[in-house]
């Protein structure tokens, strides 16, 4: 069906939040959408909740698979979907009324390959609406090249992403997604969204930036604690290697990639320094002191490029 939206929701042990997520999707007033729930080997009641919804609403299909991670769940959900536009929603989040209609109306009316809406971060019943750095409206390919790409991966002035890497507040034309979704390395467990999102943006011809805030991102303690894990630097290293391979051919992205790599490295190192010295961290992670994307990005940035006294000191330690 023309202008059908496929809503793909990976599900893993979210019985506490899943009903709120699915209910918020089912009450959307857009007339043509399907929901693919991919139960990624849940050990709680999430799988049963998925089956109950599928039995009650013919717009929903359920896939059950052994636990393979977010990337494989998205890939498998995409395989069985058939909408010509796609959105990926996290199963512990929820969306506001009218989201699909507002975004799909822009996608169709403006012939947009990607439509992005605003979102709010919710934690402990407190919510903060995220700033969207770029102006609302339609961006042609020329405008993407001039106004979006230079700060897409990292906006130095605002010290944030120019385009947030997350996929859940964006609708993509199917033909864009299918080019890249199967190339995402399933070993990457953090930051993989950016590989797909930025690849799609680089190949989009028309993008509509909608400032209306429709998406509610639940920031949970369990998902935040991984930053303190020593594996975070190694996971980042794998991710950055893909950034180097996929995006470094685009000269306009070089500086923003440097900022992104350094800022994420500093963030991980800062947490590890609560238990180790920076010299011990560099010894245990040799790519921080030899030829690598991290090393080159660290050398390319100057101390004045980084915000915050402690961050500058960490950058100095990484440079030495």
Query: Which outline best applies?
Result: globular
Unreliable stretches: 223-227
Ends apart, CA distance between termini: 59 Å
Counting DSSP E segments of at least 2 residues, the number of strands comes to 10
The multimeric state of the shown protein is: single chain
Task: Give me the secondary-structure category.
Answer: alpha/beta
DSSP strand content:
15-25%
Rg over alpha carbons = 20 Å
Written account of the structure:
The protein has 320 residues and is an alpha/beta fold. Helix content is 42%, strand content 19%. It contains 13 helices and 10 strands. Strands 1, 2, 3, 4, 5, 6, 7, 8, 9 and 10 form a 10-stranded mixed beta sheet that branches. Residues 223-227 have low confidence and may be disordered.
